[in-house]
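Study this fold:
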Amino acid sequence: MSHQSPALARLVTGRRTAWLVAVVPLLLAILAIGFVPEGEHDAKATDTLPQGADSTLAVQLAEQLPEDEGQVALVLWTTDGELTKADEAALTKQAAALADGQQGPPPSISDDRSAALAVVPITSTSNTDNIDRITELREQLRADVPDGLDVQVTGPAAIQADIGQVFDGADLRLLMATAAVVAVLLIITYRSPVLWLVPLTVVGVADRFAAIAATNVLEWTGLAWDESTVGILSVLVFGAGTDYALLLISRYRDELKTTDSRHAAMAHALARTTEAVCSSAITVVLGLLTLLLSAIPTTRGLGVACAVGIVIAATFALVVLPAALVLFGRWVFWPRVPHVGDTVLVDSNSIWHRVGEAVSHRPRTFVVATLVGLAVLATGTLSIRTGLDPAEQFLQEPEAITAAARLAESFPAGTTDPVQVLTKSNPEQVLAAVEKVDGATSARITSQGDGVAGIDVVPDAEPGSAAAEAVVADVRTAVADFDDTHVGGGDAEAIDERTSASDDRLLILPIILLLVLGGLVLLLRSLLAPVLLVATVVATYAAAMGASWWLFQGVFGFEAMDSGVPLLAFLFLVALGVDYNIFLVTRAREEAAGHGTRTGMLRALTATGGVITSAGVLLAAVFAVLGVLPLVVLAQLGAIIFVGVLLDTLVVRTVLVPALAMTLGDTFWWPRKV
């Protein structure tokens, strides 16, 4: 049986050209991985803050101080009893040796004399440098701590260092964990000791090449990124790239059952697969690029980096992978080698065919039942609270957080993260205004020069609490009439980040939906089907958010969701979730041309059910790998996408979409005629 295939498909799969198409891109990518370093970025304090926000402007003013001390660390000495005069003398001597030899004031002693506190400026040129300095400070303190005392380091610099250490070696851990998950699932899917090696190798090379290409693009364009960018990029490239590979290989295996030549079989499989993969990739890339509208610099960088990664993943899946596969004979599928005359998927009596038969008998019942189920899960969104406190950012509590909790037992709770007022107005007048704020235990001018002054206001409330945020609001009200005066600090930044995240969602979410809808309209050349498909994906997102929130509260004990998670989860779930609908509906459109909508959808579900389920389970598992990092924001993002992709794969694509198509019949494609 012969097929007419596009010239590009014949070039990729030809007997004389396949080895060039497979080997040359792989060699070039490997050379780039070996000799081209990842892009470099000098992290700025404002990279993760909303552009133009009050707290961001405060940080920018702080950088204008003539002796910008950067962030500070708080050294806390504690004892089970009371500090003696000898202890005080020893701590005063030890404190004098800190902060690069710059002698500061003696440590403050708590009223109960169980703790002493010293403020140490930390001047660092990068996040890595900050980690090194905090590590050195901790080692120095522990080496010289007086007998009977414990010492810990907290404060903004220490918290940032502990966050940074989460990512020490993270790229390697994520890569190994992701590759292991993909390998196991590919082996289970193909039940072959050989076949899984081909897609895993191709996608693995694409992943490493994407990291280099994406970070260099970010460097060239001047976009910011942080430690999590490459990790999320890697998970996305592995997940999407392997999904594309599963779709291609499934179609290739089917073609081998009707075609003698493996080259002709792959050419036809590639021609049939390219439209779905390209439509999927373009949808995801456009969705990712909407993040350029975010107020957060690192979010903009993440969008561009992941868009570059998707382009590379799709290119390797549609060019390198098919060429590499045809270099091997049919034996690569051993022990389940496909032969001409074997039953093709669309004619098989698989579990997906039986599910489709059940849906076809009572499609309206399945539509109502699945919608009710999704709606019940979505009710969890009504109680979601966003905004993580510093103490809630880690799955495993680091020293900076435990020390902050202990410090609050002996000193005002806000000491670890005071409200920071930066002003170009008269500092004495600004100080007098903030001293009147209820809930502020103390306020003092900490530095000034070149027309800029910094004032620290210590609230009598635990950082991250509603009371602490109320103090921030009152301080902002108190200084509102002063020119060039801005309020920063951890609580102020958290308030601004929540506001910015809400604004980002209101702006970006509708654009993502319009882009996805427009892409589906162009692909399917219809109106009703795209609207229904987008609606099902939105329903999946709402259900995943609600179900995940119940898991976060009931199982993991999270009291809040990170402010940026809803937007990223929406982007990944809508952009990636619509992939499976594209894979299903493009096949349904193909089958409907000869069999009608109802039978065509049943045949499409029978043919694609296994591969799409495998792809969905794999993508869900890959995003769950983000949980290997002890940072709550990544664990939450991974969990939501895990739940959402499984819902989309096992419920929405398997039941709801086929039921809608079977209920509406040919009207599903309106205004197009089947």
Summary: The two ends are 26 Å apart (CA to CA). The chain has 21 helices and eight strands. Residues 343-396+490-673 form a domain with the Multidrug efflux transporter AcrB transmembrane fold fold (CATH 1.20.1640.10).
